[in-house]
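Saturday, quiet lab. Running sequence design on the structure tokens for the scaffold JK sent over.
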């Protein structure tokens, strides 16, 4: 359900607005979304976000965890975990290099910022069968409706993380298992569902069918080297 972010709106007014939104068909909601679509001002348009979450609610209510859909989610979960394993290994190796430079009082490197991020996208085929980022339609809206241009998972690293095990990252911590979440209808009780998947279905406006259409993951390790000059 949408959140009541309008401080002038009473709960009764908010509830009535939600009931009105969810009375529309998914097709009509998508028309309304595309009519209001403005990537520059999207984060300032509360009604636009409300339409997206109403669409998600409608689609998820009609969604079923068929064997095929379960297989798709398990595969996506596996890919995300593998991406985080690669990211963590790369980050630890980079931290070792940074530490050596810091220990030697490097002429340039005084401090740093390091962030590992994974972004998710739906690519669509053109008339030649080549896949590309969606330019139009609900797919473009979904790709840009993520916080920070597609980022769905992020983790910051510090120099003290060099010797920590991968499980120290929530995305690789198997003790954090979302397999019994109510939206899974007890279908994944024997599986491991990572925090990375949880972030997708719980922290975004993407429905489960949208998530199962994800076919590109951008895996990035962002490092800023800092030189601090006193005047």
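Result came back. Writing it out in full:
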């Amino acid at each position: 359900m949408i959140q009541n972010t309008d401080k002038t709106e009473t709960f009764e007014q908010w509830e009535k607005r939600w009931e009105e939104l969810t009375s529309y068909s998914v097709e009509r909601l998508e028309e309304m979304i595309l009519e209001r679509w403005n990537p520059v001002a999207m984060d300032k348009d509360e009604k636009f976000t409300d339409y997206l979450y109403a669409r998600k609610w409608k689609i998820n209510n009609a969604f079923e965890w068929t064997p095929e859909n379960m297989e798709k989610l398990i595969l996506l979960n596996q890919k995300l975990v593998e991406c985080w394993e690669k990211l963590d290994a790369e980050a630890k190796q980079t931290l070792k290099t940074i530490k050596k430079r810091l220990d030697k009082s490097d002429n340039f490197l005084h401090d740093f910022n390091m962030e590992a991020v994974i972004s998710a996208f739906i690519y669509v085929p053109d008339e030649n069968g080549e896949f590309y980022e969606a330019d139009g339609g609900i797919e473009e809206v979904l790709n840009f409706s993520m916080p920070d241009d597609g980022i769905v998972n992020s983790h910051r690293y510090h120099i003290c993380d060099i010797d920590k095990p991968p499980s120290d990252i929530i995305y690789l911590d198997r003790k954090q298992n979302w397999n019994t979440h109510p939206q899974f209808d007890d279908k994944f009780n024997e599986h491991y569902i990572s925090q990375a998947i949880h972030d997708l279905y719980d922290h975004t406006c993407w429905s489960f069918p949208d998530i199962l259409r994800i076919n590109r993951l951008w895996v990035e390790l962002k490092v800023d080297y800092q030189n601090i000059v006193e005047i």
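Notes for JK: The longest strand covers residues 111-121. Residues 62 and 149 are 28 Å apart (CA to CA). Ask whether to fix the surface positions before the next round.
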